[in-house]
Design goal:
By secondary structure, the chain is α/β, with parallel strands linked by helices. It is built from 13 helices and 17 strands. It has a seven-stranded parallel sheet, with helices on both faces. Strands 11, 13, 15 and 17 form a four-stranded mixed sheet that branches. The protein has a two-stranded antiparallel sheet with strand order 6-7. Helix 1 crosses helix 8, helix 7 packs across helix 10 and helix 7 (215-224) crosses helix 12 (331-344). The structure holds nicotinamide-adenine-dinucleotide (NAD). Nicotinamide-adenine-dinucleotide binds next to helix 1, helix 4, strand 5 and strand 11.
């Protein structure tokens, strides 16, 4: 891969991957295209520049902006409106234009340049209703499903690629699933090599965490700067569970996929930290208190937000057996890294996080 174009390349995932690619393959050209919509993405520009990565200020909603990047061999599509709450209580215009029309423009660029595509999809393609409606037991610190009700693709190991796709999944999830369908057709019709990674929670330093996206960074920042947090939904006690994946572990997976593109082309993988790297909000609070040495006020907001689920763990057995990849970074290591990052960049981050 001589030239890699990363869309959303100033965002958390895009910039982190770009820097990892450039560090591992310095002879390759890495281009990052981003419209800087996400607050804080601008902080990545000096980092990209210092690493010799070219930044293109562009918008994937505009076909000619992608054309301005010139030819490339691989696109890693990381530009999106990434919030599962996007569209609720307002217009879904931006979400649809970026996450669906934008993907179409990206596919067109791949077709014209005969380039391969790695698409960052989401666990949100799976409908929320059957997950929310499982019977849960409450342990001291987390929810645990105690009956999977014979639904295919779900077990204590997590949710796999065979989980049924019928039912509402949030508009965000729908835009990603729509993109996946377009990718399948472009791969079939135009022979584009494409891999879809349905990611659960991605995390690490340089994530501009906010209430609706990026909770690990938000948690650490709130402790660091002494702000109040709320446990939102499912009774408001912080027992909801997610598995978490450090963005460097994601890079290691992509590196394996790219080095064997023909084998993985056409694949759709669930990607996350898996059962071992899961935690509840309450458990996260304990880790963050330990790392920052600070305690803050927690409010309880028992009302569950639309589309929210009390438990999601990624079943990573398929991707692990296909690639040999295993995530490594544990939640406490991740919290430690995020804490150091905020500590070292307090001045710029206190206005954003
Ligand atoms: N972070 C996660 O936990 C997570 C989980 C699953 C999937 N994903 C997916 O990974 C990708 C990256 O997410 P992220 O966490 O880095 O989000 P992010 O918001 O940090 O990065 C997305 C970037 O895309 C840019 N962008 C938005 N609209 C654009 C447009 N129209 N044209 C060009 N650039 C645009 C933003 O400015 C931002 O820099 C997204 O596709 C997201 O859906 C993320």
């Amino acid at each position: 891969m001589q030239t890699i174009l990363i869309t959303g390349g100033a965002g958390f995932v895009g910039a982190s991957l770009a820097l990892e690619f450039k560090a591992r393959y310095p002879q390759n050209k890495v281009l990052c295209l981003d419209n800087l919509k996400r607050r804080g993405s601008e902080l990545n520009l000096p980092r990209l520049k210092a690493a010799g990565i070219e930044f293109i200020h562009g918008d994937i909603r505009i076909q000619t902006d992608i054309e301005a990047a010139g030819p490339f061999d691989l696109m890693v599509e990381c530009s999106a409106e990434p919030s599962a709450l996007a569209g609720y209580g307002g217009s879904p215009d931006y979400l649809l234009a970026t996450n669906v029309t934008g993907t179409m423009h990206c596919l067109e660029a791949c077709r014209r340049h005969r380039a391969a595509l790695i698409f960052l999809s989401t666990s949100r393609v799976y409908p929320w209703n059957p997950i929310r409606n499982l019977p849960y037991k409450e342990t001291k610190t987390r929810f645990e499903p105690n009956d999977f009700q014979n639904i295919p693709g779900i077990s204590s190991t997590g949710i796999s690629e065979t989980f049924p796709l019928n039912g509402p999944r949030t508009l965000y999830g729908a835009t990603k699933l729509a993109s996946e369908l377009l990718i399948t057709e472009y791969a079939d019709m135009y022979g584009i090599k494409a891999i879809v990674n349905r990611c659960g929670v991605l995390t690490g330093p340089w994530q501009m965490g906010k209430v609706d996206q990026g909770f690990m960074a938000l948690w650490v920042a709130s402790h660091f700067f002494g702000r109040t947090l709320s446990y939102i939904g499912f009774g408001g006690n912080g027992r909801q569970v997610r598995d978490v994946l450090h963005v460097k572990d994601l890079f290691e997976l992509l590196d394996r996929q790219i080095s064997d593109l023909s084998t993985h082309s056409g694949a759709v993988y669930n990607v996350g930290g898996g059962e071992v790297l899961s935690l509840s909000l309450m458990e996260l609070t304990a880790l963050v208190q330990e790392a920052t040495g600070r305690k803050i006020l927690f409010k309880s907001d028992p009302e569950t937000r639309p589309g929210d689920i009390p438990w999601y763990i990624t079943d990573i057995r398929a991707v692990t057996s296909a690639t040999g990849w295993q995530p490594r970074m544990t939640p406490d290591e991740i919290v430690g890294e995020i804490t150091s990052w905020i500590d070292q960049n307090q001045e710029s981050l206190k206005h954003i996080l």
